[in-house]
Amino acid sequence: MKQKILILLSILFLLFYIYSLSISPYGVDHGYYVSVSKCLAEGMIPWKDFQLIYTPLGMYFMAIPYMAGGLGLSSAWAQAVFFLFIVGTAVLVYYILSEFDLKNSTKWLSVLFYLMFYYSSDTLSVELEPFAVFWCLLGVLFLLKFNKQEKGTLYLYGAGLCATLSFLSKQYGVIILLVYICMLLLGKRKRIMNIGILCSSSLISVLVYYVWMGWIVNDFSFYQDLMGNDYPSRWQTFFSWGVKFFFLKSCVFIVILPVVYSKLSSVKKRMVLISIVGILLFSLQFYVRQYSHYCLFMYPFVVFIFAFVWDSITYKLSYLFPIGNICCVLILCYLDYARTEQGQIKLIQQSLYKEISKQLPAPTKTIVGIKECLQGPQIFSEVENVKPVNYLCNKFGFDSTEYPERVLKLFPDAECMIVDDDYLSWVYQLDSIQVSKQLQRMSLVTTIYPYKIKHYCPLKMDKVKN
């Protein structure tokens, strides 16, 4: 049985990996995370040697291939680590469902349903959420085992550590601590003491990391970079994304849940309540930003409810509801595939990176400003000789016209600019004598949509303006 499981998981890993490498376009975050991973592989320290706006644990995992094989390795190696964690989360979903009295076919169908979500979420390029979700689910498994045993304090400490590791993989992962508290509140013994052990173990491990990192960076205010900025509060978009999430991906079996809820055992009922709480808590992310990959935190809880609904249905007609839900996800999978233009966008992206590589035969300090499809971060990750000008004020291609003071700091040491026409026009409008002098000594690569090199030359202000 174990051999069959390993074979199936290997096949699933290869399918994800091949699809991502050949069809799924490079995402914006992909370029940023891979670039940071290479910095970590070089031995750089976040917040001391370069700017970082995320907690770094997931990127340390992606840095392992570059530590072993060198920075010349492609981003496919970082993607391999990313997909290993996705498969790891699927394994944990299976083991969590194994803690309940469910048919084996239900558990495997739920795992496949969970993996389908990734194809429908524009999340097959590198993201940090699967790293955080892995630790979230491991903590859930620990607490389920703790509730079954009279003596299992180690599971409590383990869950607290998992909450910390989830936070260190992605800031929003800290929300899982509230889900863990809910699980203990629904338990039957020593609720307050258990919550105290859970929270203290998590808090102590976070403080250890904070003191250690603050001592290395020599600045205990480094955490302020993790708070983010310019995050608007939008109740309207928050509710619209909530509606979109529920009605497109989970409404069918949420609707039938009240019908089968009374048939569930008390243990399953508690898990349904915990899953609903998890979905609602992690949906709070949409209040500050509306990104589809935020849904990755919620998918496991949706799948748990799906498993209980599917397993509880005993009459054939009711199978139409879960099957309808699966069809919704399959439709979204197809739409995601259509969005890639059957892999053509990926090919165009790769051809652009090859052209830029030809123009930059040696490591070059480069300002990247391409607004069309936010290609800047991918250029840093996919073109080996494109190097940041100043790691402490460069965001690997995320610099834009919204932050002119940040871009101006890069001009004195820059050797090249890779920009589109819109960005170049904005640079000219700065109307600074010093900027004009700096531009005259740079090389220039300008691009036009979609991802084609327009020209490459030393930049002469008078010729270009005319």
Automatic annotation (TrEMBL):
TM region(s), chain numbering: 53-73, 80-97, 117-144, 156-186, 192-217, 238-259, 271-288, 295-313, 319-337
Keyword Calcium: no
InterPro entries in UniProt: LipidA_mod_glycosyltrf_83
Record has Cell cycle as a keyword: no
Keywords associated with the record: Cell membrane, Glycosyltransferase, Membrane, Transferase, Transmembrane, Transmembrane helix
Record's subcellular location: Cell membrane
Bilayer topology: Multi-pass membrane protein
Superkingdom, natural source: Bacteria
PANTHER family according to UniProt: MANNOSYLTRANSFERASE YKCB-RELATED (PTHR33908), MEMBRANE PROTEIN (PTHR33908:SF11)
Full protein name: Glycosyltransferase RgtA/B/C/D-like domain-containing protein
